[in-house]
C-alpha cells in the first residue's frame, strides 16, 4: 500500500482511538463522570429522569442505551462536530473551544516560528564557530534550560516581568477597554499579552539550536561540501543551499513534534498566565468538573497534534527528495 | 624552476612536454602523537596527455597526492613544495602561489578532480541539473553552451542526459553517479583530470566499463589524467605510466607494461603477487607480511626495510635514491637488480604457465578427490525455487495516492544446495539480487515463494509452527558476516564482551577463565597480538581488517553450520584480500562450517572456490544464470553474462593478451522493477537473438557431472530454435 495512505490511516486510527477512550472513560469506568454528573444533578434537586436527560444532552451519551448503540451515537455526534454541552459555561463545547482555539494557535505558532528560526540561526553560528565561546556558552545554556520545566520558568517570568516590574500584563489575552479590530492599539495589546507565554516557551526550547548545531557539523564534514568548494561555488550558495538546507531537513519533523509538545505545555502555561486558550478552558473544566468541556478540549488537542504530525510526514517528501518511506533500496 | 630542482631530479628525463611539475611536495599534519608526514618530499613530472596511474594502499599518502594538485589539502594539513602547471596556451602557473580567487578559477577550469565518494559528492536536495548550472555560473560560463557540453559528455558516458539531469542524486545508481561526477568534472573543459579511487565503491563490471570509457573520454577531450587507486591490475591497461606509492613517497615509476612484467622494487613485486586474479595459480598468491609504517615515525633508510626479504644493514641507514632501470623507469631500492630472484613472480621466465582466460590452456587446478556433493549426502542448506519480491515505492508527491506500487523481483526462482564443509560463491553486479538471495538463504529474509530448508526442515515453518529442529537452533547454525564489520559490532562494547556473548550463550559449561582463554587464543590465531591488548579495545580502535576478523570470530564462536559472508573482503585493500580469505578458509577447517560467499569480484570467487573445491554461482537480475566449478566458469563460461564478468576482472596481462571491447551492449543493469522479458540478459547480451526476447532459457547441464556446470542460455543447448533465430543486436 502507498505509504501516504498508511500514514493517513494511522492518523485516523489515532483520532478514533482517542474518541473511543474518552467514551470508555465516561461510560465504563467505575466512579465515571456520567454517574458523578447524575449524582451531582440529583443533589441539586433535579429529578433522576430529568438528570439523565440532561446528562445525555451534555455528553452525547444516553445512559439508558446499551453500550454499543451509545458508542455508535457518541462517535456519530463527534464526527458531526458536536462535542456536547459545557456545564459550567452552559454553552455548546464547540462554541467555547472555537473562541479559544485561535488564541492558542496564535501563541503556539509564534513560539514555534521564533524558536525554529532562532534555533537555526544560532545553531548554524554555533557550528561555524565550533568550540568557540558562543558555541560553548549556548550549548551550556541550552542543556541547562532543556532540563528546567517550562512552567517553573513561566512562574518566574510572571513574578518578575509581570508583577514585579510590570513590563507585561499578568493575565488575559487582549487589552481591556480597546475595541477589538484591525487597529494598532489592539494588535499591540494582543502581542503584548501573548509575549510572556511565548517567551516562556522560547527560553526553554534550546533543543532546536542544539540539533541544528549537530546537523550543521555533520554536513560540514560531507563530501559534497568539499566538492562544492572545489567547484568554486560562491560561499553564500554553499552556506545556504548546501549546509543550511541539508542541516534543516532532519529538524523539520522535529519542529512538528515540538508543536505537539507545546500544545501539551500550553495547558499549564495558559493557566499560569490566565490566557484564555484551549488549555485554559481545559484546566478550568478540570477544576469545575465540567466533563464535556474537558473531553472536548482533550479531543481537540489530540486532533491538532495528530494533524501537525501528519502534515509533517506528508510534506517531508516535498522538501527532502529522498524521503518517500518504504523499502526503496530493497536490493 | 630552479637549476637545482632539475639536477636532483634528472630521472624525469623522459618527460619532454610536462603539463605539471611537482617538486618536493610534502604534507604535514600536527597530531596528538606528534607531527606526521603524509606526503614525503614527492617530486614527479606529468607529461601532457598521458595517463599516469598512481598505485598505493590505504595510508600510503595517495589521497594527499591527489589533493595536492588542486592545493586542496584538508585542514589542518599543510602542503609545502612547488607545483608548476603549464597550460596548453603556454606560460607557467605556480599553483601553490595562487590567491584564493585565482585558485577558485584555477580549480575545475584547469585541473578538475573526481573523488571516490561519488555516492556523497552531490547535494542530496538538489537536482543533477542544478549541480551543472551552479558550476557554470560560478565560473562565469554561458549556461546554455555549458549545458550543451554537459549533455554531450553525459551521452559519451552512455547515459540519457535528459533523464539524468532531471534526477535527484539518490535516484541514480552508484555507477551512474560516478559517471555523472566525471561529466561534472569535465564541464568546464579542464586540461587535467585527477581521479582519486574513482571506481572503488563500484562493482567490477561497472569499474571496468568506466575504465574503458575513461580511455575514450581522454582521447576526445584531450585530457591528461592522473588516476589514483589501490588496485594495480585495474590501472595497468589504462595507464601509460605507473607510479607506486609506499609510505608517502614514490618507490617505483615506470611504463605500465614494464612495471607489470619486470617490476624492480620488491614491494611492487609483492603487490602484484598479492592480487587475486583469474590466471595466476592460486598457490602463488601471497599476502605481504607486516604492515606499512606509521606516518608519525620518521624512518631512516628505506621505508620498506621492515617488510623486505632482502633488507640488510645498508637499507636501514641509507635512503635508496632513484636508481635508473631504464630511461623512463626508476626505482628506489639499493638491490633492485636482485629483486626478481628474491621475490619471484609466477610469470617470470618463459611465462607459459599462465594463460589468458580464453586461451586453450586450462588454468592449474587441484583435481578434486571426491566431491562431497556426490557422496550421496544430504545438503545442510537447500534452496528450492526461492523468490523474494519487494514492493517498491515511488514518490511522486501527494497526488498519486492510489497508484499501484511496483514489485521488485529481487530473487526470482533460484535453487541450489550447500553441503557440509562446502563453499558456494554468488557473483554478480550490484542490484542483481545476490545479497537478498544470501539473506534468504540464512533465514534473514523471508522468501515470498519457494522453500529454504535446513537439514530437511523448512526454516520458516520451524519459526511459525515449530518443527523437528527448533528455530533457535537454526538461527544459531546460520550466521552472517557483513561487508561492513563496523556495523556488525556493537560500538559501545569492548572486543572481549562482544566475543564473550556467544560463548556465554552457547557454551554454559565454560567458566569465565575458560572463555577468556578461548577468546585470547582465537585472537592470537587470527594474528591480533598481543590479544590481551586487543580485548580491551572498542571497535573504532581497530582497523577495518581487524574489525572484520573480530566479526568473523564472533560468527564462528556461535558454532554455525553455514556462514553467509557478504563481500567480506571488498572493503579491504587488494593486497590484504588474500590474507583475509586464507584466514577465513583456515577457520572453516577449524570449525567445520560451510560458507556462502557473496562477491562482485570473480577473482576473489575463484580464489576461494579453487582452494576449497567450491562452486561459483552467477546471479543476474534475480536469476541464477550459471553455476559450476571455478575452472569451468572461468575457462569455459557458457553464459554470455559470465563472460562479461570474466572480462571485467582486472588481469595482470600485458596489452597484447587482453581483449578491450566490452562484451556487453549496455553498461547499466536494467531496472529491477521491470526486468526484460524472456532471457533477462537479452538487452545487454551480444549474442541475443529474437527468441531470447520471448522465451526464458532453462538451466541445463552443460558440463560433466564433476564440474556441475549448468547454464541458463540457449547457446548451451545444441538443437535449440535459438540457432535459427534472427539476431537482435544492431551494430
Ligand atoms: S632498499 Fe633494501 S629494504 Fe628497501 S626495498 Fe631495496 S632491498 Fe628492500
Ligand atoms: S539466452 Fe540469448 S540473450 Fe540470454 S544469454 Fe543466451 S544468447 Fe544471450
Give the structure's gist in a few sentences.
Chain A has about 325 residues and is mostly helical.
- The helical percent of chain A reads over 70%
The rounded distance between the terminal residues' Cα atoms of chain A is 19 Å
Q: Average the pLDDT over all residues of chain A and give the rounded result.
A: 79
Strand content of chain A: under 5%
Low-confidence stretches of chain A: 325-331
Sequence-ordered SSE layout with sheet pairings:
The complex is a heterodimer of chains A (331) and B (731).
Chain A: H1 3-27, H2 33-43, H3 48-59, H4 67-79, H5 93-128, H6 133-147, H7 150-164, H8 184-204, H9 207-220, H10 223-230, H11 235-272, H12 278-288, H13 291-319
Helix pairs in contact in A: 1-4, 1-13, 2-3, 5-6, 5-8, 5-9, 5-11, 5-13, 7-8, 7-11, 9-11, 10-11, 11-12, 11-13, 12-13
Chain B: H1 3-7, E1 18-31, E2 34-47, E3 51-55, H2 62-68, E4 78-85, E5 93-94, H3 100-109, E6 111-114, H4 128-138, H5 143-156, H6 161-166, H7 174-186, E7 192-196, H8 204-221, E8 224-229, H9 232-236, E9 241-246, E10 249-255, H10 256-261, H11 266-274, H12 313-317, E11 323-326, E12 329-331, H13 339-342, E13 381-392, E14 406-418, E15 423-427, H14 434-441, E16 449-454, E17 457-458, H15 459-465, H16 471-477, E18 478-481, H17 485-488, H18 495-506, H19 512-525, H20 531-534, H21 544-557, E19 562-566, H22 574-591, E20 594-599, H23 602-612, E21 615-620, E22 623-628, H24 630-635, H25 640-648, H26 690-694, E23 700-701, E24 710-711
Parallel strand pairs in B: 3-8, 3-9, 6-7, 7-8, 15-20, 15-21, 18-19, 19-20
Antiparallel strand pairs in B: 1-2, 1-4, 4-5, 9-10, 10-12, 11-12, 13-14, 13-16, 16-17, 21-22, 22-24, 23-24
Helix pairs in contact in B: 4-5, 8-25, 11-22, 18-21, 21-22, 22-23
Bound molecules: iron/sulfur cluster (2 copies).
